[in-house]
């Protein structure tokens, strides 16, 4: 290990853990003893930067997370860290930030839980690599998992699009929201419009809409029953953000539901439960100790990722004709985004947006997304995005690219002020991916305010088409360290490349 004991001691102190002696005894990775903690949901790492990472696991009983970390694959020479205790209050989940890591280094980790007598139960291995100079960066991105009643289908091999993403050997996986569909029950069988029958693995928690904390937690546990998901998470670091379906469809703060399926209709109550489950099951680096979902994840000199939260701070969904400002980011987040992107020295600035900005996404007669479908000057939620884009131009931001999901088809949009009603911005790309295991739809209508052009799109053959059709989509990106070229492709369920584009960086 090229980590000093002092570095790791400082890291564990900040994380609230203490450094233990190397060589802590552990059970074999796949050995489960009934009298000791098991890890039924696998392991994961997240928000990996050149010098830090977060590791995560869930036990089946109370215990203390124990982490063995090595940079040479030999666990008999690993450094051991004792992380936080866990109990039913956090559904036996635990995560530990690791700091003082070396850039450009592969790390292997082994996670288990220690009981009150110091006995460690089942352990599971994982790995991640920290970004370094003069090394290419690759990642996959998508959204929308287990939606419209399409869950884990054993006849298909489970959520096999996760396997297709894994096979690209990415440095990390960006999940741009709708990690679960808390408002979509999953039944044993689902009849599809083409006459086929989709079959699901079913658990009690996913058989109805989620209202209780246990039911929200059950949605994440359900996804982690899938071998493809667990395998990817163990081997590929995660960057997670959320959208609406982690709570309920198209929600906004203060909303009162009229859906008869719910006994708890106060969205603020549901969202608090949903947020707790989200933060328990999707590890992330917390900003200054706050449970804030919007954040920056630095991936070395080539890339910074800015994860947005377009759900927590929004106003109620407006009518298309709303002319005045309607929040979707909120003032604090919008100012944070402009400030942090303008300060970034990375070649590329990825804006990870949980909703597209140039498509019409309705909520009945109201507007759920950014675009309002009205020609002319910005209205409603377009005001905040217009301000962000104009500030990017004013502050000479170069090489910002927007990645998003939500609409259940894939597309590449190019935005240019020469085609736009609002012109105070520099041209940019928006790449749309998803779903990854949900019903396929699309395409959506374009909104002309920011001048988008559809360069490519691939949508469902009919609304709510099943994943078995192949119309499941993810994006793949590789950044060349020599030229800085951002090569992005859109791929289907099997990993077939549908469209690709080399984007050359503009000089600073």
Outline of the structure:
This protein is α+β, with helices and mostly antiparallel strands and about 500 residues long.
Structure report:
Its EC number is 3.1.3.1. Residues 42-123 form the Phospholipase D N-terminal domain. It holds the Pfam family PhoD_N. The protein has 508 residues and is an alpha+beta fold. The chain has two domains: 42-130, Immunoglobulin-like (Sandwich); 137-503, Purple Acid Phosphatase, chain A, domain 2 (4-Layer Sandwich). The protein is 16% helix and 26% strand. It contains seven helices and 25 strands. It has helices at 5-15, 160-166, 213-223, 227-235, 267-281, 331-343, 382-394, and strands at residues 18-19, 43-46, 52-58, 63-70, 79-86, 93-99, 106-114, 124-129, 137-142, 172-176, 189-191, 197-199, 238-241, 295-298, 303-307, 348-352, 362-363, 366-367, 400-404, 410-415, 428-432, 452-458, 474-479, 486-491, 497-503. The strands form six sheets. It has a seven-stranded mixed sheet with strand order 14-15-16-19-21-20-22, with helices on one face. A six-stranded mixed sheet has the order 13-10-9-23-24-25, with no helix packed on it. The protein has a five-stranded antiparallel sheet with strand order 1-5-4-7-8. Helix 2 packs parallel to helix 4 (227-235), helix 3 (213-223) runs parallel beside helix 5 (267-281) and helix 6 (331-343) packs parallel to helix 7 (382-394). It starts with a helix and ends in a 5-residue tail after the last strand. Residues 1-30 have low confidence and may be disordered.
Strand order of the largest sheet: 14-15-16-19-21-20-22
Count of individual helical segments: 7
Look up the CATH topology of the largest domain: Purple Acid Phosphatase, chain A, domain 2
Sequence stretches where pLDDT stays below 50 over 5 or more residues: 1-30
Roughly how many Å is the radius of gyration?
22 Å
Whole-number count of domains: 2
Counting helices, strands and paired strands, the structural category is alpha+beta
Which architecture of the largest domain per CATH? 4-Layer Sandwich
C-alpha end-to-end distance: 37 Å
- Name the average pLDDT: 92
């Amino acid at each position: 290990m090229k980590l000093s004991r002092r570095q790791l001691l400082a890291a564990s102190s900040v994380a609230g853990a203490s450094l233990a002696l190397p060589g802590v005894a552990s059970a074999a990775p796949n050995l489960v003893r009934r009298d000791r903690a098991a890890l039924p949901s696998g392991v994961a790492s997240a928000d990996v930067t050149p010098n830090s990472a977060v590791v995560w696991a869930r036990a089946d009983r109370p215990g203390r997370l124990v982490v063995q970390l090595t940079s040479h694959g030999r666990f008999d020479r690993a450094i051991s860290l004792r992380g936080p205790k866990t109990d039913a209050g956090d559904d036996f989940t635990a995560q530990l930030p690791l700091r003082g890591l070396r850039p450009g280094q592969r790390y292997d980790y082994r996670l288990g839980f220690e009981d009150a007598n110091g006995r460690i139960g089942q352990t599971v291995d994982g790995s991640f690599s920290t970004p370094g100079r003069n090394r290419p960066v690759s990642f996959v991105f998508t959204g929308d998992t287990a939606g419209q009643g399409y869950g884990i289908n054993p006849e298909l091999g489970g959520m096999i699009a996760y396997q297709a993403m894994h096979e690209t050997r990415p440095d990390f996986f960006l999940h741009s929201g709708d990690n679960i569909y808390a408002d979509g029950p999953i039944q044993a069988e689902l009849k599809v419009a083409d006459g086929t029958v989709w079959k699901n693995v079913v658990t009690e928690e996913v058989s109805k809409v989620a209202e209780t904390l246990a039911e929200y937690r059950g949605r994440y546990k359900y996804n982690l029953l899938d071998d493809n998901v667990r395998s990817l998470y163990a081997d590929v670091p995660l960057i997670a953000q959320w959208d609406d379906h982690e709570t309920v469809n198209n929600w906004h703060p203060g909303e009162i539901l009229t859906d008869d399926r719910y006994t708890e209709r106060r969205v603020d109550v549901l969202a608090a439960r949903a947020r707790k489950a989200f933060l328990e099951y999707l590890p992330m680096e917390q900003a200054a100790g706050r449970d804030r979902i919007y954040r920056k994840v630095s991936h070395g000199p080539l890339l910074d990722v800015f994860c947005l939260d377009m759900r927590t701070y929004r106003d109620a969904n407006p009518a298309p004709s709303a002319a005045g400002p309607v929040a979707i980011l909120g003032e604090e987040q919008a100012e944070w985004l402009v400030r942090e992107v303008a300060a970034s020295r990375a070649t590329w600035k990825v804006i990870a947006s949980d909703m597209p900005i140039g498509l019409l996404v309705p909520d009945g007669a109201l507007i759920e997304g950014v675009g309002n479908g009205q020609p002319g000057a910005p209205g409603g939620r377009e005001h905040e995005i217009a301000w962000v884009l104009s500030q990017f131009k004013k502050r000479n931001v170069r090489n910002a690219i927007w990645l998003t999901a939500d609409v259940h088809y894939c597309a590449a949009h190019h935005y240019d002020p020469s085609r736009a009603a609002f012109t105070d911005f520099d041209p940019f790309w928006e790449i749309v991916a998803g779903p990854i295991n949900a019903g396929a739809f699309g395409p959506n209508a374009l909104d002309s305010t920011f001048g988008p052009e559809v360069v490519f799109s691939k949508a469902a053959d009919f609304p709510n088409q099943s994943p078995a059709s192949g119309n499941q989509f993810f994006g793949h990106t590789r950044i060349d360290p020599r030229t800085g070229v951002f090569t992005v492709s859109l791929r289907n369920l099997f990993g077939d490349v549908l469209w690709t584009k080399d984007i050359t960086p503009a000089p600073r």
